[in-house]
Every structure is written in C-alpha cells, then in structure tokens.
Design brief:
Order of helices and strands: HEEEEEEEE
Oligomer: single chain
Strand order of the largest sheet: 6-5-4-7-8
Mean pLDDT: 94
Bound molecules: zinc ion
Largest sheet: 5 strands, antiparallel
Number of strands: 8
Strand content: 35-45%
Structural class: mainly beta
CATH topology: OB fold (Dihydrolipoamide Acetyltransferase, E2P)
Distance between the termini: 38 Å
Number of domains: 1
Length: about 140
C-alpha cells in the first residue's frame, strides 16, 4: 500500500444520479440542477422538478459562495469515526444560487462562526472517487 493518508470517516454513497455531482466535485466544481421549464433551483440531485414535476432539468455550476444558514460545533460525543476529528463544525450553507448544502466549516476559529457569515467552497479530496466540498469564511478570518 502506497496510500499514506487513508480516509477513515464514512463517505457518501454514489448513486446513478448523484454521480454527476460527485464527478463535478472531483473537478472542483459544485454542481446543482435547474429546471429548464420553471427555473426552480434543485439540490440534492433529482429526476424531476420539485416545483412543476418537469423532467427537463439541466446542470449548472455554482460559484460556491453563500452564507451560513445555521451551524453546530461538535466538541464531544461524536460518532466513533468522527471522534478523532473533534472539534468540528457542521453547517447548512445557503448558496447564492438559491440552494442549501450541508457541510463542514473549515479553516477558521470555531468561536467566530456565526449565522449569515459569508463562506466559499473549498474542495478536499478524500479518496479517488470522492472529493468533499467544504466551506471556509470568505474573508479568511
Ligand atoms: Zn420546474
């Protein structure tokens, strides 16, 4: 084995439809869907529009910028695979394009995280198949 940085936490399960999203992440692109009939913004990937039931959906690339909608910081009592990584911050990010994304907030002092804080996506490679989108404060503080 030549792999020196083995990823030990649970990973997302790639399905037929979400593979497009995860392939985008590997290229450092945060993809979402938009309904070509009514304009509804859709995430997580779906087969049809949640607003008008159309199957005429297209993929778009997010600029990866948004604000923290809500968050929590875990200091203890995490699932076993996550215990070596406490503390960590989990947040729901409201992307500028109009969808929400749950991920970690990284590269910041957890005491300074607040709702409505501007954040931007950063991509962290976990395995050959999975690159995880995470978010850091836009101003680097
Ligand atoms: Zn629609």
């Amino acid at each position: 084995m030549t792999q020196t940085n083995e990823y030990t936490k649970p990973l997302p399960l790639i399905t037929g439809l979400s593979k497009i999203f995860w392939d985008g992440c590997k290229e450092n692109k945060l993809l979402y869907q938009e309904c070509k009939d009514c304009g509804e913004v859709i995430f997580f990937p779906k087969m049809f529009c949640t607003n008008c039931m159309s199957q005429n959906l297209g993929w778009k690339e997010s600029k990866g910028k948004g604000k923290i909608h809500t968050f929590t910081v875990t200091y203890d009592m995490a699932p076993p695979e996550f215990m070596p990584h406490v503390p960590y911050a989990l947040a729901i990010i409201a992307l500028d394009e109009g969808f929400r994304f749950m991920s970690n907030i990284v590269e910041c002092d957890f005491d300074k995280i607040s709702c409505d804080m501007p954040v931007e996506v950063v991509f962290e490679r976990a395995t050959d198949e999975i690159t995880l989108p995470k978010f850091r404060p836009t101003n680097g503080n």
